[in-house]
Each structure stands twice: as C-alpha cells, then as structure tokens.
Recover the amino acids of this structure.
C-alpha cells in the first residue's frame, strides 16, 4: 500500500460520496454525468481532493475520491453542489422542468470513509498496544 504525504504527515484518506438529486428526480444521463464529473475535477484540486472513480444512476452519483488532512470536506461538497447545480441547469435547461423549485441536489449526502483495515482489526490493534508478545 502506497501512502500519500505532505510536509508534516503521512496519510491515506479515501471517501465514498453519494449525492442525490432533490426528490430523486431521474435527470442524470451519460452526457450530463460527464459534465458533472468535469466540474468535480475542476473544483477538487482547490481543496486537495483527487477523483478516483465516478459513476451514476438516473437520480444519484457515486464518487470515490482521495483527500488530505487539510481538505475541508464540507466546504468542498457545498462548493461543488452549488457550482454544479448552477452550471448543469444553465447548460442543460431541459432539466429544470423536472426539478421542484429548481433545486438540483438534495441538501443531504452520504459520505463514507473507505479503505484500510476493517474497524474491528483497528480496534484490536489499538487494544493490544503495549502488550508483550
């Protein structure tokens, strides 16, 4: 496993983010998903975030990305949702007729940490520190 690093730390931080269209409207297709991905890739470096994988369904997107300890995840997600909502509605105006009050993304999101050892293995490792073998 290759770890990332900066001047003061070594880390490996993967996140799985799921963003859902408001009221689960089915408005995402291959074309606008590709544009949503482009917007993500444009904004992400400003927050020390790197896209690893992207996929979509008609009403939500799945995003796997790497971050750094100084990445402000909630600020990034808000910036991304705001910019992508504005741009996608401007570039694909037909989407607006399917939205309620022109909201594109749901306010909520799901974000999970990924990678590394299962939590039980980490707990056991921490509990066993200091024990003589």
């Amino acid at each position: 496993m290759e770890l990332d690093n900066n001047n003061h730390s070594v880390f490996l931080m993967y996140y799985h983010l799921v963003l859902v269209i408001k009221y689960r409207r089915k408005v995402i297709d291959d074309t606008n998903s590709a544009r949503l991905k482009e917007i993500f890739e444009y904004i992400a470096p400003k927050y020390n975030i790197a896209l690893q994988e992207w996929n979509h369904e008609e009403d939500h997107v799945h995003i796997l990305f790497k971050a750094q300890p100084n990445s402000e995840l909630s600020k990034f997600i808000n910036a991304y949702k705001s910019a992508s909502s504005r741009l996608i509605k401007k570039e694909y105006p037909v989407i607006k007729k399917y939205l309620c009050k022109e909201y594109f993304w749901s306010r909520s999101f799901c974000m999970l940490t990924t990678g590394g050892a299962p939590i039980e293995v980490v707990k056991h490792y921490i509990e066993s520190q200091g024990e003589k073998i």
